[in-house]
Amino acid sequence: MTKQAKDPIELDVEMELPGAADTEELGERLAGGLKAGDLVVLSGPLGAGKTVLVRGLARGLGVAGPITSPTFVIAREHRPLPGGAGVPLVHVDAYRLGGAAELDDLDLDTDLAEAVVAVEWGEGVAERLAERHLLVRITRRPDDVRVASVHRVEAA
Fold first, then answer.
1. Are 90 and 79 in contact (CB under 8 A)?
2. Percent of the chain whose pLDDT exceeds 70
């Protein structure tokens, strides 16, 4: 994997993502600014492209494994590949969790010390895992174009 300099992500602006490759590229660009201890909270309806964005995060971080929705296993850890950024990715799907208590049972704060943690369906549940996080909101228009915005959120 060759690391190319990517343009920084503009925060708090809507970005049109016409296809899956655009959504993956957004994830890859986000990965360029992430390090162990970072939390990415993904929000959007079913089919919005949250898992596709995590595929881009994984490519940008250089981690192993196919990136598929962890809906039924709740969380997957992807280890760094040789030549990758050296940071594991923990991919979580909070859709089936009953709230913050069940999220706490996953002990993700331990993972946060050593990995980038991406939580699908995490808005309103996962923010308490870290003092700051990136919130990525993705919507899907009727013409099937995704619209994403990235927000940096600091604990009050």
1. no
2. 82
Length of the chain, please?
156
Task: Specify whether the CB–CB gap between 54 and 118 falls below 8 A.
Answer: yes
**CA Rg value for the chain:** 14
The CA–CA distances, whole Å, from 94 to 32, 78, 101, 102, 115 equal: 24, 17, 11, 9, 18
Whether residue 3 is predicted with pLDDT greater than 80 in this model: the reply is: no
Structure tokens at 34: 């992430």
Instruction: State the DSSP code for 63.
Output: B
Closest CA to 91 of 71, 128, 117: 117
- Spatial separation of the C-alpha atoms in residues 36 and 145, rounded to whole Å: 31
Strands 75-78 and 146-154: unpaired
Report the pLDDT averaged over residues 85-97: 82
